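Sanity check

After download, print the first record. It should look like this:
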Amino acid sequence: MAEGESDLIDLPFGIEMDIAHACNLHCRNCSHYSNYGLKGVVPLAQGIPWLSAVSKRLRPKTFYLLGGEPVLNRQLCDYLWLASELWPDIERGMVSNGLLLDRQPDLWPTLAATGSILQISHHTQPPDQYRAAIAKARAMADQHGVKLIVRENRVLFYSTYRGEGAAMRPFDDGSPARSWAACCEKFCLTLFRGRLWKCPPIAYLRLVSEKFGLDSVPEWQPYLAYAGLDVHSSKEQYKTFLNANFAPESICGMCPVQLEFFSHRPDETAPPSDPTD
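Expected structure tokens:
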């Protein structure tokens, strides 16, 4: 990590933030646990102080808004404007499954005005609704001058735990270093609840723990004890935390040393809904 002229820490990878934990799809093995019907969004008033604090310490390579499905957050466009003000000179954008873009009538003008990228992460086999949604997104992107990236992720799901739901348990392969080496999200620094976390699976573990009572399961205790970094920490604390992100840590042991990838059939995802309550 280098320090720029403004005394910010230049981060050679990106930061991501889920602004909606709810999702209209339920893709099995989602690393954000969205397949478990998580609810709710992150209000802008809550996210502003987190992002402002991080922007005073870090200049990441990229910043992306994710979910769940970020379109379910009615303040998505406000978040895009905020990110453009805090980090005007970096790559910024959002990742969506693309099925609900019409719910945000100001989205395309906002993406264009803020210079934000839209990535559509195509997680299911291509039913008619996906083909239509992607075709419309391409037309709207051309019309508004927005950079659109369609990522074919139908085989990029792998389980970061054993079992399902209340019976889910961490892997115990015994080699955090090998787990880290195999990881596809080792540089997905995550902003959640006013803290920075090494990766999405360790950050959002709290959400499924609260849903299924995993805090009483002994195997999860070492991982739930990990607390990430408070966004209001000192510059030296940021450096220490970030240096650890370039290497395996004991918490990496919750994931497998060898990834098993899965593809999804159309019937393995739920139909679009609005699970934001």
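If your output differs, re-run the checksum step. Summary of this record's structure: The CA atoms of residues 63 and 92 lie 5 Å apart.
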